[in-house]
Design a protein that fits this description.
Layout (H helix, E strand, L loop, with lengths): L10 H4 L4 E2 L16 E2 L2 E8 L6 H20 L3 E3 L2 E11 L4 H14 L5 E2 L4 H14 L3 E3 L15 E3 L9 H13 L8 E6 L3 H17 L2 E7 L8 H10 L3 E5 L1 H15 L5 E4 L2 H4 L1 H5 L7 E4 L8 E2 L3 E2 H11 L8 H20 L4 H9 L2 E4 L2 E4 L12 E6 L2 E6 L17
Parallel strand pairs: 1-5, 3-5, 6-7, 7-8, 9-10, 9-11, 11-12
Antiparallel strand pairs: 2-3, 4-5, 13-18, 14-15, 16-17, 18-19
Helix pairs in contact: 2-12, 3-4, 5-6, 12-13
């Protein structure tokens, strides 16, 4: 079992000189003449959402990257051809704007000489990033772009550790069908209300939901889109109050989740089952307390799952270390965990390739087949992780507990939802 290292100071302070800000000269000087390695440090690059509408998840992502960098370096770093290297990350802020993501990756590769990329936050920005890394034949291991649109283009340099987005809320449809049958009804009797952000990720989530609904013969009584700024879905919720569906499905990243939870509380919307993406990252339990009880929250990872590795130990060990390292987290967002897993993929690939050559490292990434604290990772030819399932957590008395699929469940489902407004 790994002995977990708990920093005596904040991780940001501990990483001074190892994780480089986008405007710092750090370990790489400006100019394409500089290679991807300086001395004994291998530099990864990332254009990530540190401001803009995805910033809270972007910060979770960076925290996950930074924690893995710290743990790997503390355990001796990366060994290639008998030489030990430290890892570092050069970050730029893409401001949650896909066009900016593409520009900054061009800068990282062309001007900064970075040959190894960690993905940005969100499907939209990753969709913008992938053609750039493909153009330069620079491998990218990404943790936050789940859209199926990323994996039908024939990309050879894109690898994603997470499950694809159509899986996020499809299990909620199956769960609603199961509940209906347990109560003497047909799955086709379930009435579904939906509201989604109009972006690649959420539209893929919707596609997965629609596919499962079709299997069960369900129909949507409400099928709305959120406004671009994700600031108001009261019109949808007013319809929900009037039509009284059995299940409300919501997907709009962190900001959309906050808007939905806040306005459901304000309007006192009562639905027997509510399934919503990004509950943890949006910190709905911290912000809305008992009003968030009963939400079903899809997750790529949970601390109760029986995953482990040599870097972090168990999923529970990772959860403990992350919360000890970063202030303000009562629940660790899966976005952070999968970001840490992406760094582990890089570490293992460098050592399997026994080389710094990007093409050899790319081939080692493609051959990845390993167990991690985050779950199994194995890439298809398209670059998506085909080894790891999604799970569904429910907020019960402020805690996130796994309720589906049943083989992974730690708790029974509470139904109907009993929020306290």
């Amino acid at each position: 079992m790994l002995t977990i290292y708990t920093p005596e100071v904040s991780l940001k302070r501990a990483l001074t000189g190892l994780v480089m800000a986008g405007t710092a000269t750090g370990l790489i000087a400006a100019g394409a003449a500089q290679a991807k390695v300086e001395g004994d440090t291998i530099v990864l690059g990332s254009a990530n959402s540190l401001t803009g509408k995805y910033s809270s998840n972007g910060i979770d992502t960076q925290n996950g990257y930074d924690l893995a960098i710290k743990v790997i370096n503390d355990k001796g770093g990366v060994t290639i051809d008998g030489k030990q290297y430290k890892l570092a990350v050069k970050y730029y802020d893409d401001e949650s704007t896909p066009a900016r993501t593409a520009q900054l990756l061009e800068r990282l590769i062309e001007q900064d000489g970075v040959q190894y990329i960690l993905g940005p936050y969100s499907s939209a920005t990753t969709i913008a990033a992938a053609p750039v890394t493909e153009k330069y034949q620079v491998p990218m291991v990404e943790a936050e772009g789940a859209s199926r649109a990323l994996f039908n283009k024939g990309y050879k340099y894109l690898f994603a550790v997470l499950s694809t987005s159509e899986q996020y809320l499809s299990s909620a449809i199956d769960l609603a069908a199961e509940v209906a049958e347990n109560n003497g009804k047909k799955p086709s009797d379930v009435r579904v209300a939906m509201v989604f952000e109009n972006d690649a990720f959420s539209l893929d989530v919707r596609a997965g939901v629609m596919e499962q609904m079709k299997k069960h013969g369900m129909e949507a009584v409400i099928d709305d889109k959120m406004p671009a700024d994700l600031s108001d879905i009261s019109a949808t919720l007013t319809k929900v109050k009037a039509l009284k569906p059995d299940l409300l499905v919501v997907s709009g990243h962190n900001k959309g989740a906050v808007t939905a939870a806040r306005q459901m509380k304000e309007l006192q919307v009562e639905v027997p089952m509510v399934a919503m993406t990004h509950c943890e990252g949006a910190k709905v339990t911290d912000q809305f307390g008992p009003a968030a009880d009963g939400y079903l929250c899809p997750t790529q990872w949970a601390e109760t799952l029986s995953y482990s590795d040599e870097y972090f130990g168990s999923a529970a060990d990772y959860d403990k270390l992350f919360r000890e390292t970063f202030d303000g987290y009562t629940t660790v967002p899966y976005q952070a965990a999968q970001a840490s897993a992406a760094v582990i993929v890089w570490k293992e690939a460098f050592e399997k390739a026994n080389s710094l050559d990007p093409q050899k490292v790319r081939d080692a990434i493609a051959a990845t087949d390993m167990e991690t604290f985050y779950g199994p990772i194995k890439f298809s030819e398209a670059g998506n992780n085909i080894a790891k399932p999604m799970v569904l957590r429910q907020i019960q008395d402020g805690d996130y507990v796994v309720v589906a699929p049943s083989k992974y469940a730690s708790h029974e489902l509470v139904w109907p939802r009993e929020a306290m407004y």
